[in-house]
Amino acid sequence: MRRTSGEGELKLRVGEMIMGGWSLPQTFRVTPQNVEVVAGSDVTLHCEVENQQGNAQWTKSGFALGFNRSIPGFPRYTVLGDEAASIHNLHITNVEMSDDGEFQCQVTPFGNARAIRHAANLTVLLPPTSVEIVGHTPDALITVKAGDSLTLECLIRDSKPVSRVTWYRGQEPLRLDSQDDKKETSPTDSHLSSLRSKITFTPTHSDNGLDYSCHALHPALTHSSEQLTARVTLDVQYPPGAPEITGYTEGETVSAETRKTLTCRSRGGNPLPEVFWFKNGVQIDKNFIKHRKYAVNEYEFEVQASDNLAKYECQVSNVMTSEPKIAEIQLSVHFPPSEVAINGPTEAKVGDIISISCIAENSNPPSDVNLVISGQTPPGATSRTYKVEHGGWNTVTNLTSYEVRSIGSDLTVNCYALNQALGSTKISTQVVRVLRPPDSPVIMGYEPGTLLKKGTSKRFSCISTGGNPLATLTWFKGAQELPSVTRHEAGNAIADLDIVVSESDNNAEYRCEATNSATEEPLSNSTSLSVTFPPAAVKVSSDPREVTANTETTLVCESASSNPKANVTWWRDGFEVGPGDSSVNPGQFGGFTTTYSVKVNVTAEDNGAVFTCQADNQFGTTTHDAITLSVLYPPTWVKKPEKEISVKEGSSIEVNVSAQGNPDAVTYIWRRGEEVVKADSFLNISSVTRDQTGTYTVEATNSQGTAAANLTLNIKYGATISSISGGKNLSVGDTVTLVCQVDANPDPDINWVREGYDFGRTEHKKHVSQNVVEMTLRNVTVEDTGVFICSAKNEIGEAATASTAVIVKHKPIIDKSAKYQKAAAEAGKEARLACRASGAPFVHFTWYTRENTPIEPAIYSRFDDRYSVETSQLVDGLVTYESVLLIKNVTNKDYGFFECLAHNTLGSSRTAIHLDITSRPDTPLDLKVLNFTHNSVELAWTPSFDGGLPQKYRVRYHVTGTARYQYTDVYPENVTTFIVTTLRLGTTYSFSVLAYNTKGDSEYTEQDVQATTSSTAPPTDTPPTQAPSARISGLIIIIVTLVGAALLVLNVALVACFIKRRARKRLTASSDKGSSKSTTIEMYAPSSYTGTVTGETLSSISEKSRESYTHEDSADDTPAAPRPTSCPPPPSHNDLNMDDAYDDVRRNQYNAALDRATAAGTGGYGTLGRRTTTPDHYNIPATDPHYPLPTRYNTYQPPTHAPLTAHTHSLTQNNGSLRRNAPSKLHFPKDYIRNGSMNIPVSSTSSPAGGVAGQYPPQSPTRTHPPPQPPMLSTFAPDAVQSPAGGGVPLEHRGHLAAPMVCPAAVTDRCQTPAPTLPRPPPRYDERYLLTPRQRFAAEWLRRRPAVTRDRPLN
C-alpha cells in the first residue's frame, strides 16, 4: 500500500500519540447499504472510513476478498475510489446469481484503534425466463361453450424473487375470487422460483373473441420496456337468435304461376347457424349465406296450385342448439281448374239415349261449368260443387238423358269452365260418332273349279261399300283368321289376300267378313280352291330294325300325300331294287299315299350300304329319302400290333391298334397274363423297365364278339453288376476266386480289368445262362494286392464297372519316390514330412531324429513340443498308409535326415527323408493323354516334389515335326489335368509340362507325349443354306474370268519383284558385311490369342492374328515406298529370318528348323531379327560379354536365377530360351516376351523397383484367366552406330523405339528422305502400352551395346 508524505507525518504524530497512550477511533464515514440489482448489470457497494488506521477489505458471505484492490480470483470485482481518502467502494460488473449474499466492508485494528465492519446485502434480481398458459400455445384460440366452466393456468418460470401475476380480460384487469397463486421451486436452480396461477370462470357470449392474458410482474422488469405476457383468445359458442321470415304476409292471397321469394334470417350465434327451408315437413332448400353477424336463406319459386294452404317452415341451428329454432307461414293461392273433362260415349246409333257429364277439376275458387252439344245448350243439365285437397274445388255438370237423332253428321260436345276470381276459362271438346252398317262383301280373283299348282302365287280381293264407319274386312281360311289390311277408298272398304298355293289349299274354303260398329252380325262371302301337289316326303324303314349279318330284311317306303297319286321305287348304287309290293291309300289334303316294300339278303359287307326310295307323281319334281343299313358284326382288325417290339430300358413305347365292328363302340383291353395293363387302344409306357418284359394281349370287343392279338415286348437294358466278391487277408500262396454277376439284356461281354496287371496266370470261367464270370488267382503274391474291376458292356449304354479288392498280407513297403523322400521348409516355418508305406495288416510308423531318437508323444517335450506325429491314415482304402511328422519353427539344426520306420506283424521297413530349405520343384512325372477332340487335348501328369512351396504347371506344345512352341499356364493352379484348346483339326501335337514355384522352374518332362486331334468337327446347328441358282448370266462369268486373270498376272509380278529384291539383298550382303543396320522387332498379339509367346515362340500367333494382319502363306502386298537410289534397300517388314521357301513372303515368322549356310549372311537362327544382307548377330564384338553361347540348334536352356545385368554375362545365363549352336544370336529369356509385349527383367541394381529376374512368373491368358493388361505392339530397333568402348551410359537409359532406315556412312550425304516407317499398329492398340520399363531397358541395352564381328565366339 502506497503512502504519501503527509500520511507519514500523520502516522508520526499518531505514533507519538500512541506512545503518549492516546489514539483516535476508526469510524465509517459512509456505510454500505442493501442493494437490489438485476442480473447482468453493474453495481457499486459504497464504503468510506473516517480516521482509517488499519487496512480495509471486503468479505463476501464470510469469505475475505483480500487487501488487493484488484481482488485476484474475482475478475468482475474491483475496489474503486481514492485509497488515500479512505474510499473503498466495491464495484461488481455483470452481476450473476453467485453474487447474491452479504458483503462486509472491514477495517483491521491498528494500535489502540479497534477493528470496524459494516454489512450490506446484495440481492440479485433475475426476471422470469418465460410466461405461458399451460396446455395452450401462444395466442391459441380456445373453443368453449357458453355456460361451461373454464380454467386457465399461467406458469411464470424461474425468477428471483418470485414473480407476481395480473390477469386481463381484454384490456381490463381481471380480479376473480377463484384466482389461485402458488409458488414453486425451480427444478433447475434452487435459488429460483416459479409462480403458477389458476383462474376459473364461466364464459358468456360476450366473451367471444376476447383475449385472456396473464402479465408477469417482477422488480427486474420495472425499468424495462419488455413485458412478459401470455394470452389466449376465447371462441365462445352460443345459440343463434330466432328466425325471421319476410316476403309474405299472413292472410295474403297469391295467384298461381307467379314468382315468389321467401327470406329467412337468423341473427347471432357462434358459430353462425345453418338456415334451411321446409315445405310441409320436406326440406326444399339448404343454400344459405353467412354474414358477419347473421345467416340468411332466400327461397325463390313459382307458385303452384299445390302451394295453397302449404306450410313453409324455416329452421335454424348450430352446435349449441339441441333442437332447431323454427318460424313458419301458410300460403293462400288462387288457381284455375287443372283439367276440364267430358265423360260420355264416343259413338252411338241413331235413336240411342246417351248420358254426358262435364267436370272442372281442382280450382280455387270453384268454377262455373256449361255443357253445349252441336252448338245448343241441351235442357235437363244439372251442376254441383265439392271440395278436394289443397283447398281446391271440383264442379260437375251432368246431362243424363239425350236422344241421338239422324242428322247426317256426328255430334260435337263442348264443356266450358269459368273461374270468376281469375277471369280465366278452360274449354274441352269431344265428338260422338253416329253409326250405320255397310253392304255385303264381294270376292274377286278366282273362278271356282280352276286347278292351281302348288307353289304359284295368287291374290284375292274383298270389297265392301258404304257404312259409318266404313267396314273392316277380315279374311279366313276355314276357321283360321288370316292376316290382312283393310284400306278405304272412295267410300269402299278393300282387303287384299296374297297367298303361295300349297297342298293344304286343296279343297280349302277362303271367306271374307265385313263388320263395323253398326253391324250386330258380320256380313260374309266365300270360295273353295282345287290344287295339284307332289308328295312332300317319303318315309323309309327296315324290318327288323336291327339287322344282323347273313339275314333277310324288308325295306319299306311310304310316300306322303300327293295329288295325283305317286309311283314309288327303291334304288341302290344307281340300280333299281325289286320287284316289291305296292298299295295306295287316301291321304292328307284330299290326296293319296303309296306304300312300296322289297326284301333284301344282307351280309357284313352291306354295313353302311345306302338304299334310296324315290316317289314321282309327274308334278315335275321327285321326292327321295335313303336308309343306311347298320349291319351288326363283331370287331375285325384294321391295325394290329407288331408281333415283337425291342426297346431300350428307360425309353417310351407307343403302340396304337384299331379295329372296326358294328356297333362301332369297340372297347380295348391290354393284358399281361391275367393282369389288365390298360383299357385303351393306345398302349403308352413311359420309361419302360426291365420287369415289363413279356407278352401283352390286346382284345377288341363289341356287343357282337371279340378279336384278340399278341405283342411281345423285349426290353433291352445296359449291364449292371449285381454282385461281386473279392479276397482279403490272404497269405502268400493262397488261392482266391473273384465272382462277378451281371444283369443285362442282351447278354454282355464281361471282363476283369486291372491296369498293369498280368492276367496270364489267372483262370476264367463264364456261366452264360446266369451272366456270371469267375476269375481264380492261384499262389497269390504281394503283387496281386490291388483293386480288380469287373467291366460288363452290351450294346446298350456305357460299361458297368464294380471293383473288389485282393489284399495279400505282407510286411510294409515304403514309397521311396522323390515326392516322399524330400521335404522342405524355410527357417522359422513349419515343415511337413510324409512317410507312405503299403502293407497288410495295419502298418504302424515310428519316426526317428538324426540322433536315432524316437519321436513319440511321451517325449515331445524333449523337442520343445516342436515335433509331433499325426495319426496314421489309410490313403488308398487298401494297404497304403501315410504318417506325417510336423516340425514347428524349423531351425538350422532341423535340416538333415529323419528316419521313418514302418512295421506290422509281418515285418518292417525303414527310409530316410531329407529336410532342406525350399527350392524349385522337381519335374512332373507320367505325363499322358487322357482324351482329345477336334480342337483340344486333355493331359494328365503326376506331381513330383514341389520344393516345399506351392507349385504351378506350364504346358509346352507344338505341331509335331516343327519347333514353333506355344505355352500355356495351367489354371486352376493346383490341378494335374488340363485341356489345351484352340488346336487345329487333324493335327498331331507334342506336349510336355514343367512345374514352377517362387524358387524357379523344373525341367520339362523328358519325353513329349503326342496326340492327334480329330479330323472332323462336330456338327453345328447352323441352318442349311440355300443352293445358289444354277443359272448364272454369261456376263457374270466373263467378269469373274477377267478378274481371276488379272489377279494371276499381279501374283506373277509380285513374285518376280520379291525374287529380284532377294537377289539384290544377297548382293548387298556380300559387299557390306561390316555395315550395321537397324533391326525392328514387332510382336502382333491380338487379344484373342490364348497361348504364351516367349523367346522360343516369338513368331507364334493365333489364327485370328494372321487373319487380321497377313495370311500365313500370302505375299507381302505392301509396296515399297520411294527412296533415294543410293540408299540401301528398305528392310523387309518384320520377316524373322525364314528359310528360302518363305524368305520373301512371310511376316513375323520364326525359323527354328533350318540350319542354313552362314556364308551368305542370310541365316536367321530362331531369334527375332530383320532379314538383312549383313550378319545377323546384331554386330556383337567377340569381346563383348553378352555374346551368345555357341550351343547347337534351338537348344532349350533352363533359366538360372542370377539377375541379368550388363556385367554378369561372362557367366552362363540360362534363361529358358531356344538357342542355336553356331552362329548364335542374342536370345531372350522366355519371360521377356509374352502376349506380344516385351517383359525383360533387369538386375536389382538397375531396376527401379528393385526386382530381379524370375520374380514375375509367367501366366498364360486363358478364357478363365485373362491377361493383366491389353496386348501391346512393340517396335524395337538397336542402334546402328557403334558406341565407344565403356561409354558409361547406364543400361536403363539405353534403347529407343524406332523404325527408320539408317544409311551407310558412305552414302549419307545422298539420303534426302528417311526410310519408310512401318505402318502404325491397328487402332485397338493404345500407344501408351507400347513398352513397359523392363522393355525399355532391353531396348536400350541392345541399342547401346558396341558392334562386334560374328567370327568371335563368346568366352
UniProtKB/TrEMBL annotation:
> Which SMART domains does the record associate with it?
FN3, IG, IGc2, IGv
UniProt lists compositionally biased (Polar residues) regions at 187-197, 1089-1102
Biased composition, Basic and acidic residues: where in the chain? 176-186, 1103-1113
Q: Where are the bilayer-spanning segments?
A: 1032-1059
List the residue ranges of the region (Disordered): 176-197, 1005-1027, 1089-1138, 1241-1276
Tell me which InterPro entries the record gives: CD80_C2-set, Cell_adhesion_signaling, FN3_dom, FN3_sf, Ig-like_dom, Ig-like_dom_sf, Ig-like_fold, Ig_I-set
Q: Please report the record's description of how this protein sits within the membrane.
A: Single-pass type I membrane protein
Q: Domain of life, per the record?
A: Eukaryota
Q: What are the record's GO terms for cellular component?
A: cell-cell junction; plasma membrane
SUPFAM superfamilies listed in its UniProt record: Fibronectin type III, Immunoglobulin
The Gene Ontology biological process terms listed for this entry are: anatomical structure morphogenesis; cell differentiation; cell-cell adhesion
**Subcellular localization, per the record?**
Membrane
Q: Which Gene3D superfamilies match?
A: Immunoglobulins (2.60.40.10)
The UniProt keywords, alphabetically, are: Disulfide bond, Glycoprotein, Immunoglobulin domain, Membrane, Repeat, Transmembrane, Transmembrane helix
Q: What is its main location?
A: membrane
- Which ranges carry the Ig-like domain? 25-123, 128-233, 240-332, 441-530, 535-630, 635-714, 719-808, 812-918
Query: Which GO terms of the molecular function aspect are on file?
Result: cell adhesion molecule binding
Domain Fibronectin type-III, by residue range, is: 923-1016
Bias (Pro residues): 1121-1132, 1258-1271
Record's protein name: Nephrin
Please give the organism. Scylla paramamosain
